[in-house]
Amino acid sequence: MSQQLWGGRFSGATDALMRKFNDSIFFDIRLWEADLDGSMAYAKALARASVLTEEEADIIQDGLDEIRAEFSQRRFELKSGDEDIHSAVERRLGELIGDLAGKLHTGRSRNDQVATDTRLWLKRKLVVLREQLDTLQGVIVSQAITHLNVIMPGYTHLQQAQPVRFSHWLLSYAWMFQRDKERLDDLTQRVDVMPLGSGALSGNPFKIDRVFLAQALGFAALTANSMDAVSDRDYIAEFLSWAAITQLHLSRLAEDLIIYSSREFGFVELDDAYSTGSSLMPQKKNPDSLELIRGKTGRVVGSLTGLLTTLKGQPSTYNKDSQEDKEPLFDTVDTLGMTLPIAAGVIKTLKVNPGRIYDAMDSLMLATELADYLVDKGLPFREAHHLVGKIVQQAIAIDQPLYSFPLAAYKKFSDLFDRDVHERLTFNRAADRRDSLGGTSENAVKAQIELLRDLIEFDFDEEVAD
Ligand code: ARG
Q: How far apart are CA 277 and CA 280, in angstroms?
């Protein structure tokens, strides 16, 4: 039987199923790089504290380098008894350099080790996710620039409300992703804190220089309480909340596009690259990319709920419950790592159909224009609203668009109507009149695009060129 890290005080063997239950190696093996980085830095710190001689530290580091090579060349072999990534690395180091390997764990616990590894691993993933958000925003803004002059129905309650620019609708998502980016930057500060040197729970007695360790590992700050340090999983809960909110935005974008790409709407068409067919109905082209984005929101929200439930009710410091933090974390990083670039691909290749959009525009969306017109002529808005309500009633009754009503017909409702009424009744005019900051007029949307371009790291020129 292979020796377990903690085997000394035990005389009986672990039950086979219990062993499987306890093992985390099958998922935490993903932490190998962070674990090796942590151990490299820790070996240096031990040498600085004279726990290891320089020579011993060198031998340990060479051993760790060899293990790194084994992992990166996919020839690291797991053995039964490798409980988790930390014990696997320690076991292998022993095989490579002998008993000296046993000194690396001086003053260190898997409790501060796993917390350090996970933070290091996540920090690196956050950089990638941030870039993916930038790209998604970038393709959104590019499409907004291309289709700046397409006017579409703006919806509330999924009922046509007022005309808006297609760009304005699409950019609304760029702002959601902007907030996601800001939240990501904010939570990164709390991920970027080093627990190493906290020991099992009470600190490190070997004069380990934690400031040196943090610098060596590239952490911006140190944890200030060892008991908190080994048990804190807030940064994972925060990350999962971030992911849930981001995924929610992706899901809403997907839902809009699923509706807009349906036969009944036909506002947009998904590229073949992001659609799939039906095994039975030859005509089908289904928006599976979007449905999966929408669908994966469930598992991300589930991971957040799962972790919060795992954390609730744990007594102080490390408990094995905390090992359950990794699968939801890994799954969520993987999920977002796919949904963000898929969404970017969908948007980048999206075909917009201005003809279908125009055909779908109901003239009743100009009712507010009529009311505003009467307001300009001096009528209080509430009266104008009521009066236009009557006009809308008639338009529906005789099935005539508002812009086809002759002036005489308008005059029957109010003497305030004049020859200039018809020029007010175009969708373009309605959109361009909304030129407040953040509105849907051409100028306001252009200003919005400029704001976003400053906030996004994306090569717009290259995008336009290809
Ligand atoms: N695999 C463990 C985890 O992920 C490492 C920490 C184990 N600590 C312990 N005291 N058993 O949480």
A: 9
Each residue of 42-72: pLDDT tens digit? 999 999 999 999 999 999 999 999 999 999 9
Kindly state the average pLDDT of the residues 297-312.
Answer: 98
Q: Residue 420 and residue 413: Cα distance in Å, rounded?
A: 16
Best substitution site from 114, 117, 196 to test ligand 1's pocket, by max atoms within 8 Å of Cβ?
A: 114
Residues 331 and 414 grouped into a single domain: no
Best probe residue, ligand 1, of 10, 23, 84, 329 (max atoms within 8 Å of C-beta): 84
Tell me, in angstroms, the distance from the centre of ligand 1 to residue 227's CA: 15
In a domain, 274, yes or no: yes
Q: Would the CA dihedral through 137, 139, 142, 147 be positive or negative?
A: negative
Residue 127, pLDDT > 90, answer yes
Q: Which of 325, 343, 359 lies at the terminal end of a domain, its last residue? A: 359
Does residue 282 lie in a domain region? yes
Tell me whether residue 216 is in a domain: no
* Residue numbers of the domain that contains 41: 7-106
Which residues partner with 159 through β-bridges? 156
Please confirm, yes or no, whether 2 is among the known catalytic residues. no
| 320 CA to centre of ligand 1 in angstroms | 6
Active site residue 249: no
Alpha-carbon 427 to chain mean position:
35
CA of 65 to the centre of ligand 1 (A): 24
Q: Which of 144, 214, 219, 165 is nearest to 189 (CA)?
A: 219
Rounded distance from Cα 128 to ligand 1 centre (Å) = 27
pTM recorded for the entire structure: 0.95
Total count of domains within the chain: 3
The last residue of one of the domains, among 90, 106, 122, is 106
The single residue of 262, 278, 316, 404 carrying the catalytic annotation is 278
